[in-house]
Amino acid sequence: MNKIGFIGTGLMGLPMAKNLLKAGFKLKAYNRSIKKAEPLKELGAEVTKNLSEVVKDNDFIITMLTDDVAIDAIMSNSDFLDNLKFNSTVIDMSSIKPTTAKKYGDILKLKKINYLDAPVSGGTIGAEEASLAIMVGGDQNIFDNSVNILKAMGNPTLVGPIGSGQVSKLANQIVVGVTIGAVAEAITLCEKAGADPIKLIKALTGGLFLLSGLLGTIPLLWTNLAYWAQLGLLIATTYFLFYAAGYSEKIEDGKLFIFKSTERVSSFLFLISNISFGATITFTLNILQETEIIDVSEELLYVIVSFFVLLYAIYLFQRTKLIFQHAGLFYCLCFFLGATGNLIFPNIEPWAGGLFLIAIGSVWGINTYSTLLKPSWLGYFLSTTTVSIGSIIFIEDLIDSEIITILILIFGSIFYVWASIQLSEQVIFFIGGLGLVINLPRLITEILPDNIWPPLILFLVGGVLVVVGLYLNSIRANIKTTKP
After folding, report:
1. What does the pLDDT average to over 171-195?
2. Rounded Cα gap, residues 45 and 56, in angstroms
3. Are residues 89 and 226 in the same domain?
């Protein structure tokens, strides 16, 4: 089995190195910040602090660095050049100038070292899934000897002599740039002709064409852009979604709905902008980590991201008070509190996690009851489901008896049914009824493990009772709302 030295374990390099290890290759890794290479140890890699050690006695050296400056710093270093194994192969998978690739191809050839330039396209997702498009420049025989290694990371294609890989990557970027420019020119043309491009698109396709077109194009653009350009695309997408949501609030008196539902398009667009905002913050912090401007733990990174996303979710909820923003606020709060708890208590027991969910669900239910959170049915749904999940985790972690666990869950379901009658909320009754339908047959099965009919009959009867209960609850709610 060929031995590989891997230099550069950043956002792209780390998952690529992992795929090589998963494919069975023996790998030694080096990174300027050694901490970023440490995860490879779990897969059997050797991590070294010395550049000379990563190249010594290895058959293949793979470099995955940020730019020409980083490549120059490595390949012109005597620790690198003087320790390369005779007739070994250097595969540079960075995106650099074609002239830089040719320069080092010539330098290494004089030392009887083989060289391939093999930039990639596909982004971090492609790196993780080993589906990168790999454009290779170099000799056919060297490519043939290296192809199994390259296939462990993606789909390699030999496009020509040394430097051709980098030229192909540039051509790929030109296609992306032209596409973006064409879209911009089309919008400018509409504006100069006196047409409102957004209204024009809405008139032609129901108002959602621009959004669907943008979201459909993002995967294609994303896989072909450098990190800074990906960040720019995320920022532009977030701004566009926020602007489109604000615009849809204004047109037709805010009565632009999703198909024939009662939920507004603006609410949906604000929700997607919240997700996009979170991705922007995450990607920004990853770039700052990669460039060593900041150095924080993964746990603290989650806290920072969740904090900013929560602030944005609070702003959106205050602005709209609509369903998607209500749900978004709840899950963003859970994300932030969970990330903070994981930072402070990294080895938390399952029962404590369950207690945490019970607390969040209870607080959410109380605030829904006080009419702070609307619509109430969504607040109660989020509250009851979260309390239920937390209760199951809490009880099953602390109580060994299956029968006692089931009995507690049954009593909890009965309490939900009672609460639904008091509050005239069908969603609470549904959760409570569902708990009874699930847990009553479980109780009978524990008591009579060899008889399938009692729990089956009880399950069917319980289902009928839930339907009847929902119907009666709806009648009670209608009577309550029609009283003078």
Report:
1. 60
2. 15
3. no
Flag whether 239 is in a domain. yes
Looking at residue 223, its pLDDT comes to 47
- Beta-bridged to residue 156, according to DSSP, are 134
Rounded-to-integer distance, Cα 161 and Cα 333, Å: 54
Q: Are residues 58 and 136 in the same domain?
A: yes
Strand 60-63 with 46-47, pairing: unpaired
Residue 157: φ, ψ to 5°? -140, 125
As for how many domains the chain has, the answer is 2
Dump pLDDT digits (tens) for 408-451.
888 888 888 788 777 767 777 778 777 877 777 777 777 766 66
CA atoms within 13 A on the CB side of 137: 25
Q: Is residue 41 among the annotated active site residues?
A: no
Cβ pair 25, 1 in contact under 8 A: yes
Q: Please count the other Cβ atoms lying within 10 Å of the Cβ belonging to residue 239.
A: 14
Here the CATH number for the domain that contains residue 35 is: 3.40.50.720
In a domain, residue 366? The reply is: no
Quick check: 101 and 163 in contact, CB under 8 A? yes
3-class secondary structure for the chain?
CCEEEEECCCCCHHHHHHHHHHCCCEEEEECCCHHHHHHHHHHCCEECCCHHHHHCCCCEEEECCCCHHHHHHHHCCHHHHCCCCCCCEEEECCCCCHHHHHHHHHHHHHCCCEEEECCEECHHHHHHHCCEEEEEECCHHHHHHHHHHHHCCEEEEEEECCCHHHHHHHHHHHHHHHHHHHHHHHHHHHHHCCCCHHHHHHHHHCCCHHHHHHHHHHHHHHCCCCHHHHHHHHHHHHHHHHHHHHHHHHHHHHCCECCCCCCEHHHHHHHHHHHHHHHHHHHHHHHHHHCCCCCCCHHHHHHHHHHHHHHHHHHHHHHHCCHHHHHHHHHHHHHHHHHHHHHHCCCCCHHHHHHHHHHHHHHHHHHHHCCCCCCHHHHHHHHHHHHHHHHHHHHHHHCCCHHHHHHHHHHHHHHHHHHHHHHCCHHHHHHHHHHHHHHHHHHHHHHCCCCCHHHHHHHHHHHHHHHHHHHHHHHHHHHHHHCC
pTM for this predicted structure = 0.50
Is the pLDDT reported for residue 128 higher than 80?
A: yes
- Its domain, for residue 138, covers 3-168
**In this structure, is residue 269 part of a structural domain?**
yes
178 within some domain: no
18, 102, 169, 202: which one is catalytic? 169
- Is there a single domain that holds both residue 116 and residue 35? yes
- Are 267 and 329 found together in one domain? yes
What lies within 8 Å, CB to CB, of 46 at 6+ separation is: 27, 28, 29
| Residues 206 and 157 grouped into a single domain | no
Residue 360 tokens, joined: 């969040």
